[in-house]
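Aim 2 progress update. The chain analyzed this quarter is reproduced below.
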Amino acid sequence: MITNRERMSNMNDPKVIEPLAEYAHKAWSGWMRYLFNEATDNPDGTVTVPEWAVSRWKRQMHTDYADLPETEKESNRVEAEMIVTTIGNIKRIAAEEFVKRVEGIDPNCLTVERRGDKWIIGNDKDNKKG
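Predicted structure tokens:
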């Protein structure tokens, strides 16, 4: 049985954190590639970001999502879809692990019961009180 506290501690599980961290790195590194592609390399190793990019990115960072033009919202939607896909993959892995844990239980006797803050999953006879 998994309590709410255990469920929250699972949020630190590498199976949850690592795919999200990988996504975060891909998003960040993709942004860096774009930014440096738009910038001009200087002889001293610094870069100069063009004025059009500075103006646009400053405007975007000070604009709520709801107020962005549809074309700019669309790039955020693409990012959101990637996050949802990553979370879906995490959920799929969790479901596969759950199935492995309950494989030995006769599906005709499978019960799922909530007792306080706990969900109890198992055979009818295993979950009877007393």
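Residues 93 and 99 are 10 Å apart (CA to CA). The first strand starts at residue 2 and ends at 3. These observations will guide the mutagenesis experiments scheduled for the next reporting period.
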